[in-house]
Specification:
The chain is α+β, with helices and mostly antiparallel strands. It is 14% helix and 22% strand. It has one helix and three strands.
Amino acid sequence: PWEVQKTVHFWAYTGSTTEPPCFEDVKWRILDVPMTIAHPQLVQLKKLMFDHVDPDTCRKTSTHYEESNARPVQPYRGGAIYRCKR
């Protein structure tokens, strides 16, 4: 078997997606140690992020330019930030 999660320690906060339409109420989890992914997983992630096509308009939905984040960093609005360290 393979490990999905190398740690139980993580940071968590509620935010939004990083590209338009910037949906709110996204539950983010950031692990405290880097994880390795396989090359096919990276290819799939890039395809989902940068090549998604809206079935109604036949246009790409990503506003990423050269695989960068299209949304500027947002100011902190006082939401709770949690650290799980069981």
